[in-house]
């Protein structure tokens, strides 16, 4: 009887050790996958009129490529980032133009065109950057666009307060900056 109990205890310990080894191996693989990403992931946050606004995104680089009109074709909805879909989250309801955006997170998309750009806000809280679902749109709003003098190598988002109240979300990449002003619904 003692031999059987000892054998069971040893076998249980061996299984537990195997479980730890497997978990560590999986964690190591995940860590390697994170470290080997071509486009690092980042988040930017700002508190605007009492709302914490955060954008989480992958940061692809130009790497000598022409971005807008080539890598990112005009006339097709595009996720501004890499890997997982870019998300916008706010601790309070936001208003961008005529679009009311509930607290999130929400995935964000952009429809670039030669003469105008549009921000698309989705109900989906997460997703993959090339799986846009039009049925999940909360709505679309126009973006302001301006040409930059110097190129921005790595896609960059910024969120900040405006002097006149409310805030601005901006994205810069290549020689283009797009932005949208927002207000916090009180």
Write the SSE topology.
Elements lengths: L1 H34 L5 E8 L2 E8 L28 E4 L3 E3 L2 E3 L4 E7 L4 E6 L14 E25 L5 E18 L2
Antiparallel strand pairs: 1-2, 2-3, 3-6, 4-5, 4-9, 6-7, 7-8, 8-9
What does this protein look like?
The structure is a single chain. The chain is an alpha+beta fold and 186 residues long. It has two domains: 1-36; 39-184, no CATH class. It has one helix and nine strands; from the N terminus they run αβββββββββ. Strands 1-2-3-6-7-8-9-4-5 form a nine-stranded antiparallel sheet, with no helix packed on it. A hairpin with a 5-residue loop joins strand 8 (137-161) and strand 9. The longest helix has 34 residues, at 2-35. The model is unreliable at 4-34 (pLDDT under 50).
**Count of folded domains:** 2
Distance between the termini: 72 Å
Report Rg: 22 Å
The averaged pLDDT comes out at: 84
Structural class: alpha+beta
| Broad shape | globular
Number of helices: 1
Helix and strand run? HEEEEEEEEE
């Amino acid at each position: 009887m003692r031999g059987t109990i000892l054998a069971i205890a040893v076998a249980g310990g061996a299984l537990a050790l195997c479980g730890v080894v497997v978990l560590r191996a999986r964690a190591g693989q995940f860590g390697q996958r994170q470290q080997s990403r071509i486009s690092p992931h980042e988040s930017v946050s700002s508190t605007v009129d009492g709302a914490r606004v955060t954008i989480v995104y992958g940061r692809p680089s130009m790497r000598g490529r022409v971005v807008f009109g080539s890598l990112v074709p005009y006339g097709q909805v595009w996720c501004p980032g890499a890997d997982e879909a870019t998300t916008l989250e706010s601790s309070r309801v936001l208003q961008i133009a005529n679009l009311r955006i509930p607290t999130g997170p929400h995935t964000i998309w952009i429809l670039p065109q030669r003469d105008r750009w549009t921000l698309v806000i989705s109900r989906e809280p997460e997703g993959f950057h090339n799986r846009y679902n039009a049925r999940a749109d909360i709505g679309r709003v126009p973006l302001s666009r301006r040409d930059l003098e110097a190129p921005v190598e790595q896609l960059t988002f910024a969120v900040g307060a405006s002097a006149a109240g409310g805030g601005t979300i901006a994205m810069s990449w290549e020689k283009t900056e797009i932005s949208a002003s927002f207000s916090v619904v009180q």
